[in-house]
Amino acid sequence: MEDGSPSTVQDVFLSRLMQTDATECASTYNFANQMEEHREITTEKAKSILKNMVTAVNNLWVLMDGLHTAFLKKLPGGDLCRQKLSSDLEVIVKNLRLEFSELHSKHKSLASEFQIQRDLNAKNKADLERLKGELASTVKELEESNHKLATLKAERDAAKGVLPLLNVGSTHIPSDKIKDKQKDLQDMESTLKELLDQGSARLMELKSLHEERIRILQQLCDLQNTLKNLKCITSSHAFQLVRDQIEKSKAEVLEYQALYEKLQVEKDNLAWREREWYIKNDLADVFQRSVAVSDFRVADLRFEIQKKIEERYVIENKLKEEARGPGRKQIIAEFKSLVSSFPDEMGSMQIQLRKYKESASDIHSLRADVKSVSSILDRKVKECDVFSVRSAGQLAEIKRLLGVVQDLRESERDLKLILVMFRRESIDSRVVMDAREAEYRAWARVQSLKSSLDEHNLEHRVKTANEAEARSQQKLATAEAEIADMRQKLEDSKRQMCDLSDVLKSKNKQNENYMSEIESIGQAYDDMQTQNQHLLQQITERDDYNIKVVITKCYHLFCYSCIQKVAGSRHRKCPQCSTSFGANDVKSVYL
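That's the E3 ubiquitin protein ligase sequence above. Prediction below.
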């Protein structure tokens, strides 16, 4: 029994080892091959998915750059505030992209570390499989040695049972063979002990490798959890900085938008004030011109009236002088009645001219109003055209943004379908499946957050565009209402202008009639003046004929023509008494 006890223990150990480890070795070997194949397939699929995601992100960046350039082109280039806002936003976007690229590089480094850990795990698995194969070979050798040992024990037992019989039969067996067999048996027992020690050492190595594999798998799971944990990502310093910068940029965008709207309102108010100032200047210019024309006409009329008054004074003086002569009272009375009728006619003419001036000034003011209203109407029509073009551009931009949103949704739908297909096609262990599903959920969550952020930005832009369109539509409606009012005023002014033009035509006809009457009166006045001149000439001739001159030296009377000849000579002497006299000594006397 003492000899058989170690053999029974070895048999039990070998049987258990063959029942457990050998089958596990075969099954783990097959499972390891399947895992390697599935790992290669999944890595290729993951690489293709990552490439598609990177291309999608690049396309989104290119699209955002195109939207930014289009928005900058749509904006007017004269506002420094808008240029500063666009440059600040561009710097913020560049910083966000740099941080995103840093996160992407960190993700790449973590993925490379994950791949290194996977490679180490695969290497450890390969070493484990190699050790399992070596263990299987040692087990086979151990079985063979056990089989040989069993045969040797059987031979020894048989030899022990035969030896007494041989001694009884007085047969002698040589002791050298027995010693050799015992020596071989001892050698086999020593080799068996060595093999048992080697197997226990290999078993300890396998246990340590299994523990190391478990530890590496735990580290791998921890790394995957850290990669997939959204809380860890959101609580990271870079993510917090990016979120703070996004909030700050949003606040700055809202502030600059409010400032832009305020500046736009101030600009509109200044434009209206400038237009009112231009209209007032035009009206003032028209009024000044009309006042200058009326002043010029008034000055002409005053000059003519002054001239007529002077002529009247001359005529009155001549009439007074003529009134001294006999036989002219009737002519003088006619002249006085004619001269007295002149002020009444001039007053009536001045009243009519004043009325004509007032009507002419009203017509000029109405013409100026019509011109100003027509210019305002043209400006309003141009503004309506500009608003309509701007609203059409904004509608086109909204449609294009909606198309972009639709494309992004379709791409998200395609990615979800690819993810579902990949989940259906993947055949792996439960732990790997859970890890991959968690990874895919995290990626889907990231993509959904990105798409929701893009949709939020697009919705915000669409909202702002809609608000701008509503404001433009409101302004367009107010402009159309103002245009309708201006058109109504223009029609009223046109009707008034037609009425005033009719009145002006009638006044022009009356003016022509009055002018013809004035011309006839002036012709009659010229005829009367020529007649008056003729009569005055006759009077002067009679006066010259009736004038007597007296020489104050001797007081002799002579006719004017007789004394004029003597006064023209050098030696002035009285024809009657020959008294010399000077030029001042001759005085006229009316008899």
